[in-house]
Amino acid sequence: MEKKTETLLSRKVGEKATLKLKRRGNSGNSVLYGFGMFGLVGWSIAFPTVAGALIGMWLDKHYPIKHSWTLALLVAGLFLGCACAWYWISREERKIRKDKEKNK
Question: What is the pTM of this model?
């Protein structure tokens, strides 16, 4: 009975150790990768927002209307940027879930 328990215990420990080594060796989950994703999300929101504001300012200067182009395009850029960030984050979440299911 003791031999069988040791075998079961050693097998479980071996499986967990293998899983940890796989995860540790996966460079996609490093700290630098996480900071890179923060940067990607930040720029995907900031760039369209600032671009929308700049285009809106140019339109306000050259084609003035009753309402502000700047405000309208700033909001449109912010919406577009948030949609892009949501896309990137959900794509990464799907990858993580797929890897977890594969490693089970």
Answer: 0.64
